Amino acid sequence: MAVPMKFLSEELDAMKQAGLYGTIRTLESPQGAWVHIDGKKYLNLCSNNYLGLCNDPRLVAKVKEYADRYGVGPGAVRTIAGTMSPHIELEKKLAAFKGAEAAIVVQSGFCANLTVIPTLAGGADDLIFSDSLNHASIIDACRLSKAKVIRYEHSDMADLKKKLEENSDGKGKKLLITDGVFSMDGDVAKLPEIVELCEKHGVIVAVDDAHGEGVLGRGGRGIVDHFSLHGRVDVEIGTMSKAFGVMGGMAAGSAVLVDYLRQKARPNLFSSALTIPDVAANLASVEILQESETLVKKLWSNGDFLKKELGALGFDTAHSETPITPVIIGEASDAKAFSAKLFERGVFATAIVFPTVPRGTARIRAMVSAAHSEDDLRFAVEQFAAVGREMGVIS
Q1: Is the pLDDT of residue 52 over 90?
Q2: Domains with residue ranges and CATH for the chain
Q3: Are residues 47 and 324 in contact, defined by beta-carbon separation less than 8 angstroms?
Q4: Count of other CB atoms within 10 angstroms of residue 188
Q5: CA 263 to each of CA 116, 175, 234, 266, 299: distance values in angstroms, whole numbers, following the listed order
Q6: What is the DSSP letter of 77?
Q7: Which uninterrupted H or E stretch holds 68?
Q8: What is the rounded CA–CA span in Å between residue 102 and residue 94?
Q9: 172, 127 contact by CB (below 8 A)
Q10: Where is the Aminotransferase class I/classII large domain (predicted)?
Q11: Which of 101, 185, 305, 342 has the fewest CB atoms in 10 Å of its CB?
Q12: Widest CA span of the chain, in angstroms?
């Protein structure tokens, strides 16, 4: 008799054999520079808590205040009965922070791409130009669209120019989507060149700034602010699950764009609104970023320090232009072994392997935070050095 679910165990076994099976650890403490796992304390170098806001008392206080006033759950989608005044308050503050006319808040950064991409380019005659290293959420959002997807080589402006020219006579809408910061290597999209090319060819420009929010630009306002491209990028897509330290996604742009997304985007029409505690915590994060650049500057200082020290030891840290610090190991099994040895030494830094990154480029992606002290990072460097020498990654 056939066993229809047998493939599950077979594929899991194959992943284990190939060194691609991931160990998922459980945190027993708040997210922070140090965390507790299995009753022990570890230096945390693998979260996206860029500014250390996940456990900030100002966010916690705002959550308590708003939960007491508004409750917890929205109880409905935004278009029926789920839009509450805190949602509007957050959207107005995000728009002001981003320097846009309007913004819409959705459930996650993943949902933000599902909100924008199929909604703006959903027809069979439409074209989507997508960077070859775009995030999985962008890829999936493109797949859900009926549009033809044209991939251009990563940050290769000559290839993008060629493909725009080859498709200049397309009948439908044209949309270009790119990550702002590419999270696996830490490099930044060539947004000024992209905008210039797209303006010549009548292409809508959307940038997913998930790893740029709270990191790039004045006080963390993002990649559009970083390159002074206000008014020339049609859609800024973002997440509040990284530098903001909370959860939720957003899209910012013109008032007519946001009105269109409210009426047409499926995550807004068919999935319940963001919870009140999430909204409240995000409000606190925006207020903190508007008040001071201290946390953003500390993040960059920490990132520069770690890259410099690991590079001096001989580690391959690729070509990161942001605080993201990839340490390229090579084979998945070696990266997993490296991560396990770091864990034994008190450093929580997970291995990133295929399919998240191409085969042969498995790595430890060290994610610094403004919450880390210099002593924390020196401890990390010492442990990387010890494991690197033990495994022959560095001499």
Answers
A1: yes
A2: 20-49+293-391 (3.90.1150.10), 57-291 (3.40.640.10)
A3: no
A4: 21
A5: 12, 19, 18, 9, 38
A6: B
A7: helix 57-70
A8: 8
A9: yes
A10: 41-383
A11: 101
A12: 66
* Torsion, Cα of 155, 238, 367, 37 (10° steps): -140
d(CA 322, CA 219): 15
- Per-residue pLDDT of 136-183, as tens digits, reads 999 999 999 999 999 999 999 999 999 999 999 888 999 999 999 999
- Average pLDDT estimate for 92-120: 98
Tokens of 359: 């085969």
Sheet with 347-348: strands ordered across: 34-37, 40-44, 347-348
Q: CB-based contacts of 297: which residues, under 8 Å, 6+ apart?
A: none
Q: Cα–Cα distance between 315 and 334 in angstroms, integer? A: 14
Q: What is the pLDDT of residue 118?
A: 98
CA distances from 243 to 75, 307, 392 (A): 27, 19, 34
Catalytic residues: 183, 211, 242
**What three-state secondary structure class fits 131?**
strand
What per-residue confidence (pLDDT) applies to 21?
85
Q: 281 is written with which tokens? A: 């915590």
176 contacts 205 by C-beta, under 8 angstroms: yes
DSSP for 1-49?
---TTHHHHHHHHHHHHTT-PPP-----S-SSSEEEETTEEEEE-S---
Q: At what angle do helices 85-98 and 276-291 cross, to 10 degrees?
A: 30
Nearest-5° angle of CA 201, CA 207, CA 208?
A: 155
Residue pair 273/106 in contact (Cβ under 8 Å)? The answer is no
pLDDT of residue 5: 95
Report the alpha-carbon distance of residue 77 to residue 369 in Å, rounded: 34
In 254-266, which positions are buried (b, 16+ CB within 10 angstroms) versus exposed (e)?
eeebbeebbeebe
Least confident of 119-128, 351-360, 384-393: 351-360
Angle made by CA atoms 238, 37, 24, in degrees to the nearest 5: 60
Instruction: Count CB-CB contacts under 10 A for residue 5.
Output: 7
Cα–Cα distance, 56 to 214 (Å, whole number): 15
Q: Give the per-residue pLDDT at 18.
A: 83
